[in-house]
Specification:
single chain; mainly beta; rod-shaped
Length: 200
């Protein structure tokens, strides 16, 4: 200040963006697959960030948040903030529901024709492999081969765990019989049929 000094000196300094600190707190950390992306409510654990504005102070992005596995939320600082914070959550496989697969069973009564008879299945994407097994009525030995010999059979279905849904343990789903008539029985049935036709 005149008269003691004359002139001016300027000093400069830098204000750097603040690195984000703390964690991201998710309202829910576990979900069950439903075909839709999960975006659970979240907030900063650092109370100093309560007034930060999305799009201005930070950007948020979800990844792997639809299919079973581990989803992630990533928040990246913007403008006056820098760095990034992340949080993960689990998406579990869904229980297997009956509407996810359709089973076609053989007729309950099948006439022996030297051909194999069994069940078939159509299933939605994400359902595991299906295995049919058969056992003669009253027996405990299971076979995946479709029966073709005369007899009464129980049908069982087992579905393995798939990419989207849990599986199903071996479960009985039906019964069918393969009949075989001998010549005398067949002639008798024809005779009865002809008589019934004649009598109206």
């Amino acid at each position: 200040v005149f008269p003691y000094t004359i002139g001016r000196k300027t000093y400069t300094f830098t204000i750097n963006p603040q690195p984000l600190s703390g964690e991201l707190a998710l309202a829910e950390s576990s979900h069950v697959y439903n075909g839709q992306p999960f975006t659970p409510f979240w907030q900063f654990s650092n109370n100093a960030y309560d007034n930060l504005v999305a799009g201005t102070d930070y950007l948020s992005a979800w990844s792997d948040n639809t299919l079973p596995g581990t989803g992630m939320l990533t928040v990246t600082g913007k403008n006056n903030y820098t760095g990034e914070l992340s949080a993960t959550f689990v998406i579990d496989k869904a229980p297997l529901r009956e509407e996810l697969y359709q089973v076609t069973l053989p007729d309950e009564d099948v006439t022996y024709d030297e051909e194999a008879h069994g069940a078939s299945i159509s299933k939605s994407s994400g359902v595991g492999d299906a295995t049919f097994s058969y056992t003669a009525k009253g027996q405990t030995d299971f076979s995946t081969q479709q029966p073709k010999e005369p007899g009464e059979y129980d049908i069982y279905l087992e579905i393995a765990e798939g990419s989207l849904y849990y599986g199903m343990a071996r479960t009985k789903i039906g019964t069918f019989t393969i009949f075989q008539f001998d010549t005398a029985e067949w002639e008798l049935l024809q005779s009865i049929n002809n008589e019934l036709i004649q009598k109206g």
